[in-house]
Amino acid sequence: MQRLESQLLDNLLDCLDRLFDGETAVIDVHDLVFATLAALSDSPHAAVLANAEKELIAIARSRATRDQRREAALHATDDLRKHLASVLPFPNASG
Questions:
Q1: I need a labelling partner for 68 at 20 to 30 A (CA). Which of 19, 59, 78, 85 fits?
Q2: Could you give the number of structural domains in the chain?
Q3: Closest by alpha carbon to 81, among 39, 35, 29?
Q4: Residue 37 domain-assigned?
Q5: What's the domain range around 72?
Q6: Are 60 and 27 in contact (CB under 8 A)?
Q7: 70 neighbors 62 (Cβ within 8 angstroms)
């Protein structure tokens, strides 16, 4: 994996952690997924990013409460989180 690709995906995983902790809004997660998808559109990650982006924009535009949107977004990004965990190295894995 290229360094830039790894950094983009790591930033996205951090953003998903902030969503879990209630520190970021669904629209902000969507925006980062959208930008990451644009940057990595020819990568093996594109399909999982596209699926998450599609679900997140629908959730962000919904009339649900902030907490309801957060819960829906956590569910919608579960496959993305699993994908990121499978392709990113563990922190400090190199020493």
A1: 85
A2: 1
A3: 29
A4: yes
A5: 3-87
A6: yes
A7: no
